[in-house]
Design goal:
about 350 residues; alpha/beta; Udp-n-acetylmuramoylalanyl-d-glutamate--2,6- Diaminopimelate Ligase, Chain: A, domain 1; UDP N-Acetylglucosamine Acyltransferase, domain 1; 2 domains; ten-stranded parallel sheet; flat
């Protein structure tokens, strides 16, 4: 890749504040990591020092920026982040386009329903009896689609993804490598000194436009369905237990675990490494900070932190109190010494 600043400026509809139109860029990087030839972007005042120290050849900056770094070509745009995305979309890594075809090593049951002229099935994929694939579905190498599972139009399973029996995927669902949909829920009863497995007879339903990151799992319901609502985006290494209901357009970040039968409302944001106990409800438009532990139901529309998760203002007061403990202990020690001296002098 090689693009001149004049061409770049035209692409992003910007204004060249510094640098020569004939200069070229050959790559992309963050402000910290950029080297000569790289393009970066600046859109957050918290990173002002990184902008001033960057070694990038060119940086997309917001309109109205008063001071530009010396020796760096700056292009002013309305939204540096979106403009950078536009450049990367055109000149950066390009995924392989959808290509119709069924690899000869794929194993497909005779009762599976699909149009071979409108799907893509990769090497060593397995499609079981009665499975249904919509048009423009892409099943990557080594994927498994179980009996009577249904995958909606335009969905994509990256290599090694698994959809177990009878699970339902809507349209434009994306499952990244290692995702497992419909493994048995973790259900046992302690009976006569042993853990007896409880049959998991339900399904998983994933609605339209859901994306699930690598290594994440959504367990089969004990009965009924485990349900992921439309537009929800799930990061890598997330565990969702049996009979969980996740609402529409939620964000669930890496290493979060949601226990069985919990209910998550719409537009909920759950930050990394959070844990949600079984059978609790998290109201719509809630926001959970990283490592939050939800042990009881939470009202919607608030931000929560901590373990157990409480409203953000309450947790901040608690943390402030904890941070003052060393000073309080020093003060108590000082007062104890003063009282000891007073007691000694009175004797």
């Amino acid at each position: 890749m090689e693009i001149t600043l004049s061409d770049l400026n035209a692409l992003v509809d910007g204004e060249l504040l510094s640098g020569q139109p004939s200069q070229t860029i050959t790559g992309f990087a963050s402000l910290q990591e950029a080297r000569g030839g790289d393009l970066s972007f600046f859109h957050d005042v918290r990173y002002q020092d990184r902008l001033l120290k960057t070694r990038a050849t060119a940086v997309l900056v917001p309109q109205g920026l008063s001071a530009v770094p010396e020796g760096v070509a700056c292009i002013a745009v309305a939204d540096p982040s979106k403009s950078f995305e536009r450049v990367v979309e055109k000149y950066g890594f390009q995924p392989l386009p959808f290509t119709v075809g069924v690899h000869p090593t794929a194993v497909i049951a005779s009762t599976a329903t699909y149009d071979p002229n409108r799907v893509s099935i990769g090497a060593h994929a397995v499609i079981e009896e009665g499975a249904v694939l919509g048009n423009e579905v892409e099943v990557g190498a080594g994927c498994f689609v179980g009996c009577r599972a249904r995958i909606g139009a335009g969905s994509k399973l990256f290599a090694g993804a698994t959809v177990h029996d009878q699970c339902l995927l809507g349209e434009r669902v994306i499952l990244h490598t290692g995702v497992v949909i419909g493994a048995d829920g973790f259900g046992y009863e302690f009976d006569k000194g042993r853990h007896r497995k409880v049959r998991q007879a339900g399904i998983v339903q994933i609605d339209n436009d859901v994306e699930i990151g690598a290594g994440s799992t959504v367990d089969r319901a004990r009965f009924g369905r485990t349900w992921i609502g439309e537009g929800t985006k799930i990061d890598n290494l997330v565990q969702i237990g049996h009979n969980v209901i996740v609402g529409k357009h939620c964000i669930i970040v890496a290493c979060t675990a949601i226990a069985g039968s919990a209910q998550i409302g719409d537009y909920v944001v759950i930050a990394a490494q959070s844990g949600i106990a079984g059978h609790v409800e998290v109201g719509s438009q809630s926001r959970l900070g990283a490592r939050s532990g939800v042990t009881k139901s939470l009202t919607g529309g608030q931000t929560y932190f901590g373990f157990p998760a409480v409203p953000a203002a309450q947790e901040k007061r608690r943390l402030a109190s904890v941070n003052r403990l060393p000073q309080l202990m020093a003060r108590v020690k000082e007062l104890e010494q003063m009282m000891a001296k007073m007691s000694a002098s009175s004797d």
